[in-house]
Amino acid sequence: MRKVEALVLLSTLSSTVIAAESSRPRGVGPEFGAFYKSTDSFTCISDPSITLSPSQINDEYCDCPDGSDEPGTAACTYLSALSPPQPIAGNKNTSAALPGFYCKNKGHISGYIPHMYVNDGVCDYEICCDGSDEWQGVGGKKCEDRCKEIGKEWRRLDDIKQKAMRGALKRKEELLKDAGMKRASVEMSISRTETEIKSLESKERELKKVYEEVERRERGKVVVGKEGGKSSKVTVLAGLAKARVDELRSTLTSVATKRDALKEKVKDLEGILAKFKEERNPNFNDEGVKRAVQAWEDYAANKMGGDDDEALDRDVESVSKPDSETEGINWTEWETEGEESDVEAHAVYKFEEYLPEAIRSWVHQKIIDFRIMLVENGILADNANSGSESKAVTDARSAYQSVSDDLNSKQTSLGELQTDLAKDYGNGDIFRALQNTCISKDSGEYEYELCWLDKTSQKSKKGGGNTGMGNFVRFDRLEVDEEVGADGKGVGKGERITMMYENGQHCWNGPNRQTTVVLACAEKDEIWKVVEQEKCMYRMDVGTSAVCERERSKVAEGKSGKDEL
Amino acid sequence: MRRSLAPPSRWASLLVLVSAFCCLFLSTAAVKHENFKTCDQAGFCKRNRAYADAAGVSGWEAPFRIAAESLTWKDGLLQGTILKTINKNGETVRLPVTITFLQSGSARVTIDEERRQKGEIELRHNSIARKERYNEAESWTIVGGLDVSKTATESREATRSTVTYGSEGQFQAVITFAPFSVDFKRDGATQIKLNDRGLLNVEHWRPKIEKVEPEKKEGDEETPAPEVEAGEDESTWWDEPFGGQTDSKPKGPESVSLDITFPGYEHVYGIPEHAGPLSLKQTRGGDGNHNDPYRLYNADVFEYIMDSPMTLYGSIPFMQAHKKDSTVGVFWLNAAETWIDITKQKEAHNPLSLGIGSKTDTHTHWFSESGMIDVFVFLGPTPSDVTKAYGELTGYTQLPPEFSIAYHQCRWNYNSDEDVKDVDRKMSKHQIPYDVIWLDIEYTDDKQYFTWDPLTFPDPIGMLKQLDESDRKLVAIIDPHIKNKAGYPVVEELKQKNFGVNNKDGNLYEGWCWPGSSHWIDCFNPAAIKWWIGLFKYSAFKGTMANLFIWNDMNEPSVFNGPETTMPKDNLHHGNWEHRDLHNINGLTFHNATYQAMLEREKGVLRRPFVLTRSFYAGSQRVGAMWTGDNQASWDHLAAGFPMIINNGIAGYPFAGADVGGFFGNPEKDLLTRWYQAGAFYPFFRGHAHIDTRRREPYLVGDPYTGIITRALRLRYSLMPAWYTAFHEASVNGTPILRPHYFMYPGDEAGFAVDDQFFVGSTGLLAKPVVKEGADSVVIYIADEEQYYDYFDFKKYSGKGSQTISAPLEKIPLLMQGGHIIPRKDRPRRSSGLMKWDPYTLVVVLSKESTAQGEIYVDDGDSFDYEAGAYIKRAFDFKDGVLSSANLGTKGKMTDKYIKSMKAVGVERIIVVGAPKSWETKKTVKVGKGEAQLEFHAEEGNKAAWAVVKNPAINIAEDWKIEF
To answer: Are the beta carbons of A533 and B827 separated by less than 8 Å?
Structure first.
């Protein structure tokens, strides 16, 4: 069946073919001429066991199950896998032996037209510009030979197409160059960043060391500092409590703010529903709507009186106020109290003073180490956490921190750059050149927009905002079979690169919108056609030089079936 | 079309919010019962059922009698007055009665009410409505057959009158005076009894006596009103609420009712449109029976359910009763809401005979809300006698343009002219034949009919021209609701000229439909029809040309915010008739107006219109096709299609179909495939889909389904000559196209309830398409001892009873009955129009006696020239080894010209199925003076022998003879 379906256009005729032409029966193409040479008999092409007399060729009666005895009529069309099964003696192969009815189309390109188009009263000039498919003139139909004009027009368009193709390939080169540059710039960024990271890493290591040293020293200074004396258990607790209360308070405030926002939303929604109930047509006979209104009424009734939480609001408000001497807890009172409460602790540290000098420093060091060990193992409280820290430590840490942050951000951007480099930008990274650009098309009710590797959207002329039709997820491939217009616009037949855009705006009574962008070679980046194949599932046929292929360019200029040969 | 969840745009945003609520009440795909009345909720239905119950009690005295002295007999008309006793004092009201005996053998009983007829009544609420009982149903429905019998004779006795009529005096009507009743007899035996059970009821006019009533709470419908006279429950007499709206009923109670008994008849068929079996069920409860009567009140029923007496979109109050070797029928000509109760009573002659010789009487009880009693009685005795007689009155089905019986590709919606052109190209590319592509409401500019959306359909002519290149057509929807929008010329003219339906106060009625606020054209108004006709002229409806045809939807009428999704009953039509009186005809009037318009699109060019309607009434068959409305993509809906279509066919409206694939929902691929195989046997064959469904054009389904579907479509196309011949037959004598078993074998009791297999016209094709999920075979019922052959491989089946036919997905169970000759055109083309010049294949299916007959009817498929003889009608006959073709046509002034134009159309093959063994050695047959080759294929296993005559070089239009 494929052969019949294929509206194959053959390239130019060879001279030998022309010579053989006159002897071939009607509808037979040159490559099948050999089968029809004998003047004594004819055997069906796929079934040589059936022998016919030459007069049975094109006699409007189908003798060969493969249709080869009727190359010039529609008599064998009923023997097809697409037609109701026919009782045929034996299990004969009914696949058509010929690709169709051969139209010479002198002055243009010859072609095969399906046999079911032969003598049906329609001049199918698109394939048969010479009108030879209607040789019987059924119902008085006359199809004059239009190959001259059609051929001329075709050649004109073909010239334009050739030119366009050259332009397209040139543009592709530019795109590739651009893409290469963009890639190179990314690569450059990567190596630059890597260097930066390296230097930052060593710097970070140094500063970390410094910081740790300083901190270690500080920590070793035992707890007794200028302020250290005040740090009784209670004051520590007070400090902690204060911080905690502050934290809780701020959380409470933010929760209250959020609650207020939600209340506002609920109010809005209730307003909408109340209005909906009021404005709906009660006779609209939509049970769904009726039930919804009923549910709303019940909800509204239950809600009565539940609104009275002003007292609660006042409580929240007062709790949220910052503590001061007159309100809440007077923290100062707690923080300054109990100066002598930790005498015992001091005594422990003082024992050093009774030791000989040499041992003292060793012991001191050990104690510090030991203490740090305890702190690090969570056994002793860390001085650093108590809110007091020496400037030296702070400075060291912030120096270290800032470099560390810097390093992190560099690493992140390096990661991004590397991901980007590894990302699929098509052959030769070509789509890198198109990234961050968009094209659009005015198509009937909508204006469609395609942003390369980003998103697709539509905007209705009847009002409303942009509707997202999907976000780019990946490249893919798709087998297509579409017309190509005389202007060369159209994705044609064969496997094409596609870009999948998914998870666009959700559809009423449907899925999330998605778009399959089918790409075909063109000089200019252009959306040719947008169809809604399924509810909210779109297909965009798009022309772009980015998918042009040099080696195929010669073939691709054919009108249709460009990938057939 | 559909009532879907898709809201008018203004509501969309609100409904989005509400959708969350909707989810809580998970909507199942089933009819919204609460939207439609049960008998209990329809006042007159409840009253008449109660009346029937009271009449069943012993001691009941029917209050209707003929005043014997009033009776006159003249020229086949028996006229007089029925007196209805209305109270214990013996007061009566006068009801003029006419019994007409027609030349055709049909009889008609008409009962009116004198006081209303004379207008001597008062209407409530200062209503300006007409006072008479509606008497114009006839003018919309009846187109002939009313010639009065010249041979009928009457003889009168003191208590009764007997009229003898019919072509041979074989019929009798015995009219008993008190209580009034009529028995119709054929050959001395009673077939139909009117008022045998005394359920005749004509609710006479009475004033409302305002009573001091206790304060009644608003909305409390159940409070019984105090009784006027003993036994009279007034609660449903006056203003009647339903679903939040109240019917003002200015004329008060006015229903009519009659019981009709079919003694000895066990099966009744007809009264479409309902989703259920062909053989109607009992309706007064009990195991397997319905609880409500069959209802006829045309309505837009969203997601209708199976096996239900619920009303649907159309109504034909024509019923046939059938018993062994006898069919009779009644036609209840009333356009108001109507209900029909059916009960069957088994009556054993001898209690010991255990059912042997027992017979079943079918009792029917008909009641309508208003109007007259107007019943036609048909006494058969064959099914085709009855359908023919009914067709003489209401008209036979239109001989449709030939393309319209080919395949239609529809969807709500093809989104743009480019979309249409793309589908058109793809069908061609995949070599799938189709003739018509359809546009639902979205093609319009803002739901304003007679306009095109300028953004999506900027070039309708370009689209139509592309279709025309392969002789394909477009059907666009035009509905009766006219958008109420300033600046829309159609609505402005409608308003200015008062061509709309009015509300009860006589002001233009406004309701909601697809366009939002709308008005409805009143096609009862002749001036409105004239105006409507003008709107379709090519010069007026811009962007149309000759290959555009029309679809009328929503013409019940569907009113989204009306009671039961239709118009208030107290709305007023032309002549101030209440909508209540004519509701069921409304769809017909609109359909008819569009048909008239299509005839007059271009001066001097008369082509057959094609107009599809959803709503219909008796007579709609004259003006186009119908379909079974918004079905669902489910196996039970697929199965329901055939009984519905068959039932429509026997009720005079054979040009019927169901949406292939199912309108709502997405069919699985096997369901869609089976549906196409079934659809290939729908007289009206259209694939259709809801806007929320996935695309399902045949080429999208994929292997192997697309191939199987294409084969089903091409089967339909190759049998187009047979289908067209069947349509021709239906158009001249009312014979259904899909013929059920009882119709073909009126004596075979085992087949009386069979409604899932059928014969196609007179072709002898017996089909039983698969309608069950996963089935790989069907059990087909064979009613006789004739030889049957599988259509595709000539496998033999014979013997009365059930036979199993293997039916894997790619197979359609289709048999050819021996004794027929089937005309085909086997060459596939892009459309039926392009097959016009192709040669025929004749399939001669031999009977056991080695005989076969067949017919073919051919014309240009498009014009009315056939009325002037421009057609070919041939009888094929195979007998004694000779196949011949003889003329059946009557010569007219255009015959010769037409025959000449068809000179080139011949016969390419003659296939003889069941060919005798003696032909084994035969190499040629004699064709006139010449000869043609014969190829013989011997019997193979269970597959019959067959032979082919190759290229006999004979013309379809001429006499010829082939000797084997």
So the answer is: no
